Amino acid sequence: MVVSVLSYLTVAVMSVDLGSEWMKIAIVKPGVPMEIVLNKESRRKTPTVVCLKENERLFGDSAMGSVKNPKSVYRHLQSLLGKKHENLQVALYQKRFPEHHLQEDPVRGTVHFKNSEEMQYTPEELLGMVLNYSRGLAQDFAEQTIKDAVITVPAFFNQAERRAVLHAAHIAGLKVLQLINDNTAVALNYGVFRRKDIDSTAKHVMFYDMGSGSTTATIVTYQTVKTKESGTQPQLQIRGVGFDRGLGGFEMDLRLRDHLARLFNEQKKSKKDVRENHRAMAKLLKEAQRLKTVLSANVDFMAQVEGLMDDIDFKAKVTRSDFEELCADLFERVPQPVQDALTAAEMKLDIEQVILVGGSTRVPKVQEVLLKAVGKEELGKNINADEAAAMGAVYQAAALSKAFKVKPFLVRDAAVFPIQVEFTREVEEEEGVKTLKHNKRILFQRMATYPQRKVITFNRYNDDFVFNINYGDLSFLSQEDLRVFGSLNLTTVKLSGVGSSFQKHADAESKGIKAHFNMDESGVLLLDRVITYSSSAFSSWQSFNKCLVKMYIHERLAFTKLLLILPICLPAKEEKDGDKSVNTEVEKKARPQKKSKISEEITLELLINDIVDPTADDLTSSKKKLQDLTDRDLAKQEREKTLNSLEAFIFETQDKLYQEDYQQVVTEEEQEQISAKLKEVSEWMDEDGYAATTKQLREKLFQLKSLCKDMFFRVEERRKWPEHLARLESLLNSSSFFLKSARLIPEDDQIFTDVELNMLEKVINETMMWKNETTAEQEKRSPKERPVLLSKDIESKRTLLEREVNYLFNKAKFAKPKPKAKNGTSTDKSSKANSTAEENVSPPIEESTDTKSESSEEKPSDETPSTESTLDSQSQPKEETATTGLYTTPVN
Ligand SMILES: *[C@@H]1O[C@H](CO)[C@@H](O)[C@H](O)[C@H]1NC(C)=O
Ligand SMILES: *[C@@H]1O[C@H](CO)[C@@H](O)[C@H](O)[C@H]1NC(C)=O
Ligand SMILES: *[C@@H]1O[C@H](CO)[C@@H](O)[C@H](O)[C@H]1NC(C)=O
Ligand SMILES: *[C@@H]1O[C@H](CO)[C@@H](O)[C@H](O)[C@H]1NC(C)=O
Ligand SMILES: *[C@@H]1O[C@H](CO)[C@@H](O)[C@H](O)[C@H]1NC(C)=O
Ligand SMILES: *[C@@H]1O[C@H](CO)[C@@H](O)[C@H](O)[C@H]1NC(C)=O
Ligand SMILES: *[C@@H]1O[C@H](CO)[C@@H](O)[C@H](O)[C@H]1NC(C)=O
């Protein structure tokens, strides 16, 4: 298998391939390597949707079923993440889902859904609900709790969009091991299963992924590389990405839906315009989606919706060429991502294969156009177009988790959007004239690999200054893409304390200010720290080598930091010739000066220029909001469960009162009482039950159960007697037989003492007596009375006897066979008796650790008891004698 378990920590990890319409979930857990999670309907994919009803939430397929009230159904949430209210994509969303009321957040400029004053939700909160639901599905499937996840995002997600997904996961209480680009996850899955085919020759593969919401073309290079840590390993590198944010199956569905709406209006069966009716449009969308799928395999199809609007049925024939005409402009957009990916990769079409990914590549026209564009014989259909991303992501989750050992597969992802640092500095030109000079430094160029750390050094500053982190040259984006992209400015960084830091070490030479950046595994840019460096000749600073504390709180999620600065002093740089004792003036002059490097972390103020992150308070209140909804859902489920139990109890008990088992044990009076109470509660349910609280329902159930408890007990006991008595009987028989056999062992070979055998006899006698007396007593009683013969007593008597027999049985098993008297001449009887006792308490010899049947076969003695089937021989005599005085102890 691809993934093996490293430790037996019971930690499962999950992946969510979070598509705009569907999500696929996969898990890895010890013993279950890489598996797609089935949802409650046993399906392998789940709609990315939440339905918020007045008093409960629905998810997945049941949420999609709510066409009756489209306003309560929230979906395609990704397109709103990290977007301001004025963004083109928000307008498009509003157009596609006119039933929703999107409102601008006054602080962040983003949008939230306003259903009513009480019901307002941000896209992050709604996505958080969906993510928590996905976790619930994974947990049910894995049968354990899961906290860690790898979540996919489209490769074209920018910084604000990525952070929004992280916020959603945070609200859901998920720990994100990594946001992985969905195309990279697909490429990883592809590579992992073709590990053997990867060698030192670079192979280029293109993945063409058309999903519901967007399309991405990705060029990936596979080859083996040498690593320091683990030798030669396969690697994938993302070389070029081209994308179309709006090209996907959903737009096709909408075109078909609108076509159906037109056809319905043309049929003039209703005076109203169907397009004004959200519910009817939701029904048409559902039918359009079915239609698109059918038209992938058939040339025409009869679309139909019963009771579309005002009880009017709708029926119309749609052909594949109708469909292709409706989407003609969309199909024209198919080749562009391929071109863009090649341009980004600076490659010609020298790729081996073009592989199809994503559900919408099933549309025949898409394949036709793509095939022409890439000029290949055929398109690769050799991966699971739906599940490759979830599987690749869960492989990565296993690789990142400590609990699994996976074969290394190096992943070098690439930043789709370049990022640069900009700053403006006063420069002095001739004769004291000062002018401002604007500087740019590329931090991550287009297609720069990540994760990666970068350091930028500012050499010419000796006082506080400001620099900006912005996106770099995005001229490769279309005008429309740029409008959807949002702010081109990321963060303004204000440094304070630079001057005082340098002044503190006035004798030292400034070595510049370094800003340390990190683009992490998730493709999120972080500014780790900014540090001033100076170097000085050995001075009093040399002694500043004590315990210096550097403290900072790094709020990674929000890309903001609070820095509490204490000076830190890095150890002096390595001294060249190591002659530390000689430290004189003369030496200093004669040789290169020994330098001490002083570094100090600078306080930062970060101003976010793209989308302001939610504050810690915002996140806390979002979490609470979700938790309240979850609690409400759980309370509702609990109430339904209690209601069902109560109904079932009444129904079943009424039925039981007519069964013979019950009639036999119940008095007339008791029966009347129970019947009356059942009737009473049943009537109460019909009248007040619907409004009753869970507590009230529970109380009613409790009352009924208490009333019927004794009756049930009597029935239960009578049912258990035969089996319990039979088992006791059988043990009595076999232990008597054992006792008899043991007594027949010739004195020379005897391994049991008299005390032991008498003890066994006593227990047998007592048990038999108890059984005789108790059953006799029970027979005198009426079945309508509480029984005296109790199954739990029978069981405890049996256990007691069983232990006694087991003790002796094990003693026999672990005793060393003695030389046969016939053969031996030397053995003296009395010493034998003594040594036997000792051997009995010694640890079992090797062969004794084998199974029962084997060891009995090996025993030379014929006297081995034949009662094995009823006896448990796991315990050893030594333990038994040491732990308790209940059993007879071997004595001489
Ligand atoms: C997430 O779902 C689990 C059940 O799977 C629930 O116990 C938990 O409270 C939920 N968390 C939130 C924030 O809703
Ligand atoms: C974005 O950054 C550029 C360069 O730093 C700056 O000139 C421009 O004013 C910034 N725009 C905004 C809206 O902050
Ligand atoms: C009692 O045990 C013996 C020997 O194991 C067996 O032959 C006999 O059938 C058993 N009798 C009953 C009533 O179980
Ligand atoms: C067990 O019972 C038998 C007969 O019922 C009796 O002879 C014997 O002495 C009793 N043994 C013990 C140890 O009580
Ligand atoms: C128990 O009853 C059985 C059969 O009824 C009888 O054979 C046996 O001797 C009795 N044993 C005791 C200890 O009363
Ligand atoms: C006794 O046992 C030994 C070794 O096991 C064997 O050599 C010898 O012949 C045996 N003697 C008798 C009388 O069986
Ligand atoms: C056997 O044990 C008895 C009683 O403990 C003791 O008197 C006797 O000396 C022992 N014999 C040997 C050979 O150890």
Automatic annotation (TrEMBL):
Subcellular location(s) per record: Endoplasmic reticulum lumen
Q: Does the keyword Ion transport apply?
A: no
From the Swiss-Prot or TrEMBL record, what is one GO molecular function term? ATP-dependent protein folding chaperone
Which Gene3D superfamilies does UniProt cross-reference here?
Answer: 1.20.1270.10, 3.30.30.30, 3.30.420.40, Actin, Chain A, domain 4, Substrate Binding Domain Of DNAk, Chain A, domain 1
Does the record bear Nucleus in its keywords? no
Q: Which Pfam families match?
A: HSP70
What start and end residues bound the annotated signal peptide? Answer: 1-15
**Region annotation (Disordered) ranges:** 816-892
Query: What do the Gene Ontology cellular component annotations say?
Result: endoplasmic reticulum chaperone complex; endoplasmic reticulum lumen
Q: Which UniProt keywords apply?
A: ATP-binding, Chaperone, Endoplasmic reticulum, Nucleotide-binding, Signal
Q: Where is the composition biased (Basic and acidic residues)?
A: 849-862
Q: Which GO terms describe its biological process?
A: endoplasmic reticulum unfolded protein response; negative regulation of hypoxia-induced intrinsic apoptotic signaling pathway
Q: Which PROSITE patterns match?
A: HSP70_2, HSP70_3
Q: Which SUPFAM superfamilies match?
A: Actin-like ATPase domain, Heat shock protein 70kD (HSP70), C-terminal subdomain
Polar residues bias (residue ranges) = 824-839, 871-892
Which family is it part of? Belongs to the heat shock protein 70 family.
* Protein name per the record: Hypoxia up-regulated protein 1
Task: Name the gene.
Answer: HYOU1
